From TrEMBL:
Main location (coarse class): cytoplasm
Name this protein carries in UniProt: tRNA(Ile)-lysidine synthase
Pfam families: ATP_bind_3, TilS_C
Free-text note on domains in this protein's UniProt record: The N-terminal region contains the highly conserved SGGXDS motif, predicted to be a P-loop motif involved in ATP binding.
Locations listed in the record: Cytoplasm
Residues the entry annotates as binding ATP: 29-34
Length: 462
């Protein structure tokens, strides 16, 4: 006799969804899909040694019904002695506050709660009850909104810390399992309301397509998602290698990509590189559509220095000296560096997350091949020395130039983006700039055959 558990167990093993001794937090609403998932996970504890937890979130939109659902899931958990966690949130209030849809607000609050539990119990994965029908609805919704091949992939069995063990099971399979095993569940009336796009697809669009075009539309869209995944994975592998070659600078707030080379890539690869960079910054690309990627690619193609574009998720794209800069809009202004006196030994500059080591060494110990290390004629320095950022009147004597140059002109010649210039650290003595960290030292303080004492400065980010 066919048992849905066999299919479930095959998914767990094939996609490496659950490992021995691992913690699994199951998001259980009390509806058919989640009750079946819960039952399958409980049965799995008989053949696999792992820890199961149940999480339920009351979205605060259905009054007494929502309270009933919470009590139902709690009793279900107690029946099998499974630890139960619940919370109540104001989904609609959060949506208004963040100016996002109720669906997006619910998703953010749910996964935020699930991950808090994971953090409290020492890590693990989150199990959710997305099934084949959900996959078809997701793909159709993305087609309607406008998507590329990545969007057609839909959801995956394993995405970071989220597992979907019943993703390849149709809703009618779950209903049959529920009946055969005499499982109880609760109804959510919002599932039959057509105020949500996903509900409209399930309740109106799919039945119309099934009656007039394709009775197997769910299976067809699921196959489309699998085929798209195969092609997308191959392109991703190529794009990943290109991305690692083209990224010039990356930190928590910004990414700089070599523009000329990126612009030469075919659109399929170029768009993936841009998408990956955006994902690295915001860690969530649910609101990033194909049109946003194409706008960034178009901005790059025009190669207009100083031109910028605000895209979704608070990310700004701009072109500077031919390179593509992607930045978090609310973090573009870095913390201003206050002038700091430096001393022999280790100097910590917290604003820049910079460690600067200063020490006197013998001339025979100089190693000029170290990029982050510079050497100075100790006796030419007028102490104290300080670390600061640029001033309007700054003059610099670049090594090997044989003369002076306004610091502003030096930055322009080095093609340093204007918005970065105020944050570049300068090591200075009483009268001159010794070192523009990350760039040149002053010709005044270079080591010569007359040098008696050597001062070594070495920096590193932390």
């Amino acid at each position: 006799m066919y048992d849905l558990f066999d299919k479930f167990y095959e998914n767990v093993i094939k996609y490496n969804l659950i490992n021995p001794k691992e913690n699994i937090v199951a998001g259980i609403s009390g509806g058919i899909d989640s009750v079946v998932l819960f039952d399958l996970l409980v049965r799995l504890t008989d053949v696999m040694d792992y820890s199961l937890y149940v999480a339920h979130i009351n979205h605060g939109v259905r009054g007494n019904e929502a309270d009933r659902d919470e009590q139902f899931v709690e009793k279900l958990s107690q029946k099998y002695h499974i630890p139960f966690y619940s919370t109540k949130v104001d989904m609609n209030g959060y949506a208004r506050e963040k100016k996002i849809s109720s669906e997006e607000a619910g998703r953010i609050l749910r996964y935020g709660f699930f991950r808090k539990i994971l953090n409290d119990i020492g890590g693990g994965k989150i199990a959710v009850a997305h099934n084949k029908n959900d996959q078809a609805e997701t793909v159709m919704l993305r087609i309607i909104r406008g998507t590329g091949i990545d969007g057609l992939r839909g959801m995956q069995f394993l995405t970071q810390d989220i597992i979907r063990p019943i993703l390849n099971m149709k809703r009618n399979e779950l209903e049959e399992y529920l009946i055969e095993n005499r499982l109880e569940y609760v109804e959510d009336y919002t599932n039959v309301e057509t105020i949500y796009q996903r509900n409209k697809i399930r309740l109106e669009l799919f039945p119309y397509i099934e009656d007039n075009f394709n009775p197997n539309i769910v299976d067809s869209l699921y196959r489309l998602s699998k085929n798209a995944q195969i092609d997308s994975d191959a392109l991703d592998e190529i794009a990943e290698k290109k991305y690692n070659l083209l990224v010039k600078k990356i930190d928590n707030n910004s990414i700089i990509i070599e523009g000329a080379s990126l612009n030469k890539e075919v659109p399929a690869i170029k768009n993936r590189i841009i998408r990956k960079a955006i994902f690295c910054l915001c860690d969530d690309i649910i609101d990033i559509e194909q049109k946003h990627i194409e706008l960034v690619a178009d901005l790059l193609g025009k190669n207009m220095t100083g031109k910028s574009l605000n895209i979704a998720k608070g990310i700004v794209a701009r072109i500077s000296y031919g390179d593509l800069h992607l930045e978090l809009a609310d973090k573009q202004k870095e913390t201003a560096l206050k002038e700091k006196e430096l001393s022999i030994g280790k100097n910590i500059i917290e604003e820049l997350r910079l460690e600067l080591m200063i020490e006197e060494i013998d001339q025979k110990d100089i190693k000029y091949n170290l990029i982050n290390t510079k050497y100075f004629d100790y006796d030419k320095i007028e102490w104290p020395i300080t670390l600061r950022t640029r001033r309007e009147s700054d003059i610099f004597y670049p090594l090997g130039l044989g003369g002076k140059k306004k610091l502003k002109k030096y930055f322009i010649d080095k093609k340093i983006p204007q918005e970065e210039r105020d944050n570049i650290p300068l090591v200075c003595d009483s009268n001159n700039i010794l070192w523009i960290i990350g760039y040149d030292i002053s010709d005044i303080f270079k080591i010569t055959n007359r040098t008696q004492r050597v001062l070594k400065m070495q920096y590193q980010k932390y």
